[in-house]
């Protein structure tokens, strides 16, 4: 197996670009499309890109690991930040070969000169085999590895059911709230729900309406203003955009950005105008977008992203862990000090639980 490092997306060979881009890479949030949007709109001004590509002697693609590094630093980071939902080595082999490929990748990174002082990989799903393989490979290559919990990830496995059957199983509180609030809202106002799918002339208005709602919501202003519009445009071009908008008297008051691939819908972002909180406009919009995902798109899983907000329990019934791995090189003085600090901190936590 061979490992090569690329420092820009433009350097990637054509066969790597083709296989790592959606739809060949079926998980859009691990595709080259996603990572290029994230890097170019968020990280490019402060970080240098490092893309590790593993291939065999016949140039068959085996794996990719997208990383970045701060200039002058010997700390290697996963290509993630607070916009991320999931991260992993992107594998192009079956499960029987995964351990060997990840082992080769980690061995190469561990042997780079000068040595990495630390490697930090975030947004890893504990339930996926890549997590354990990374953890074991890092330890086998001499790193002290400190796993740390990040988020809960709520999700729903769609059974052989219609949306009506799915919604009938939701709580009485949710169903009654939706019925009462929507009836009153439609009685008192003109209400329209619109979903933007395509990269057409209407999409820019949808992006403007999305931004307007976001700026009127409870959320902090976006620190990287170009990220969401760029992601929306990219998803539209790939045919996986579901940008839902709810208008009251022709004014946008609630929005949700869903990313829907062949079998999975990810609820990526949602917000509503604070002035319409009591009208439950977000719940009304959710009801329609869940209907589209189940009845029209026929997805088998709906993923509510990272975070443990209480409202997610109304719609989901499963939860899994998103975890980070901090791998520290114990052969440096700074590394030894950090390892001692982590061990003491973990010991204190254990003693407090007892």
CATH architecture of the largest domain: 3-Layer(aba) Sandwich
Tell me the count of domains: 2
Q: What is the third-level CATH name, the topology of the largest domain?
A: Aminopeptidase
The count of β-strands is 13
Strand composition percent: 25-35%
Stretches where pLDDT is under 50 for at least 5 consecutive residues are none
Q: What general form does the structure show?
A: globular
Class from secondary-structure proportions: alpha+beta
Rg to the nearest angstrom? 22 Å
Mean model confidence by pLDDT? 94
Task: Name the helicity range.
Answer: 25-40%
| Biggest beta-sheet profile | 13 strands, mixed
CATH class of the largest domain: Alpha Beta
Query: What order do the SSEs take from the amino end to the carboxyl end, as H and E?
Result: EHHEEEEHEHEHHEHHEEEHEHEH
Number of helices: 11
- How far apart the termini lie comes to 47 Å
Q: What structural keywords apply?
A:
354 residues, alpha+beta, Aminopeptidase, 13-stranded mixed beta sheet, 13 strands
């Amino acid at each position: 197996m061979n490992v090569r490092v690329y420092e820009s997306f433009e350097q990637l060979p054509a066969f790597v670009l083709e296989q790592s881009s959606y739809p060949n890479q079926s998980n859009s949030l691990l595709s080259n499309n996603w990572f290029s949007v994230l890097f170019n709109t968020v990280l490019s001004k402060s970080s240098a890109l490092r893309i590790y590509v593993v291939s065999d002697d016949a140039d068959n693609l085996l794996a990719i690991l997208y990383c970045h590094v701060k200039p002058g630093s010997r700390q290697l980071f996963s290509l993630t930040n607070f916009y991320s939902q999931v991260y992993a080595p992107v594998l192009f082999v079956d499960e029987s070969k995964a351990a060997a490929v990840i082992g080769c990748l980690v061995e190469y990174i561990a042997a780079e000169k000068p040595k990495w002082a630390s490697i930090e990989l975030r947004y890893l799903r504990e339930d996926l085999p890549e997590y354990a393989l990374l953890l074991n490979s890092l330890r086998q290559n001499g790193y002290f590895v400190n796993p740390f919990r990040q988020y809960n990830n709520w999700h729903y496995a769609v059974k052989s059911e219609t949306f009506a059957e799915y919604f009938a199983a939701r709580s009485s509180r949710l169903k009654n709230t939706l019925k009462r609030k929507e009836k009153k809202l439609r009685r008192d106002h003109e209400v329209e729900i619109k979903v933007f799918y395509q990269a057409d002339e209407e999409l820019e208005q949808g992006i403007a309406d999305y931004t307007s709602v976001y700026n009127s919501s409870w959320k902090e202003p976006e620190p990287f203003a170009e990220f969401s519009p760029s992601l929306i445009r990219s998803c539209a071009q790939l045919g996986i955009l579901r940008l839902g908008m709810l208008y009251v008297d022709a004014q946008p008051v609630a929005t949700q950005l869903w990313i829907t691939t062949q079998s999975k819908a990810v609820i990526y972002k949602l917000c509503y105008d604070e002035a319409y909180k009591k009208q439950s406009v977000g719940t009304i919009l959710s009801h329609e977008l869940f209907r589209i995902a189940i009845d029209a798109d026929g997805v088998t899983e709906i993923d509510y992203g990272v975070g443990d907000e209480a409202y997610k329990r109304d719609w989901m019934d499963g939860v899994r862990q998103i975890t980070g791995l901090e791998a520290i090189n114990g052969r440096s003085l700074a590394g030894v000090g950090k390892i001692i600090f982590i061990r003491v901190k973990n010991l204190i936590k254990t003693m407090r639980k007892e």
